[in-house]
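Summarise what follows for lecture notes:
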Amino acid sequence: MLNSKDLQDVKSQQRTLKQASGPEPALGPLEHLPGTWKSDGMGWNMIALPFAAGPLGYRLLLNQYNETLEFTLVDKGVPNRGVGANGQTDQLIATLDYTQQIVQVAAVDSPLSGEAGGANLAIHHEPGLWLHMLNETQPHVDIARLSSIPHGDSVLALGSSEVQQGGVDIPEVNGLPVGVSHDLASPYLAPYKQFNDAPFKGNVTAAGFPGFNPLQPNALLSLANQGVDIVETTTLIVDSTVATAGVTNIPFIVKQANADSMKSTFWIQRLADGSRRLQYSQIVMLDFFSRGDGLPGRIRWPHVSINTLTKE
């Protein structure tokens, strides 16, 4: 939340649209996002997909990718009108437009489908907004991310930020599906065991590179931080399961592989040389097929994407 002077400055300017050209105080924890961020082969993705031709009914697809993430337009002083116990209770919001474009570098799936595709395949496009709520906020909710995905999904995720000195420990993530046994000896988890035993290396040929393992998908983020002098980290965490947030999908997706939730964590890093890096880990839970543990509902399949980007 802005201090009273900065908040009054935004109020006095009224609503303002401008191209994002650098840090904007009204954006608060988002102020270092404006600009263009890119990665070259540092992005990794895992997703389980329904697959009728295979013996398991699903296939596990792993991608290595390039990414361009561009933050372009600031909209300051967006007013939400309200009335409280003391009269008019308005909220002001600062927003930042973004566009995410992802192009595949390499891919592999198991069982083999013939549909993984090759290099230079466009695999994701996402326009959206990041919001900073300047005042009248709920506890632990002062930022939001709104995303539109061409598959037919719309996401509102809410959360908060934290600034820390130095780097931070990247949390571990388990990519195994929820609702089935996690015993890798189970034939049902054969694709996960395959890539646990021999992680996907994409086009990386460097000696000692461990590869992308769906059981530990965040591990390559920690590896990318080794030897990097990080002096400050701004962490943004947004989650669609927070109250009033959510994911909505077109009917086909709801029926076949429902995107039920999304949680993403961004780490904006300031390095000792003054440059900035951006890392993220995003988990979308896809629900399809009946659970195998006796509980009601569907199996929940983690769709995990990670990347390390630098600012141009």
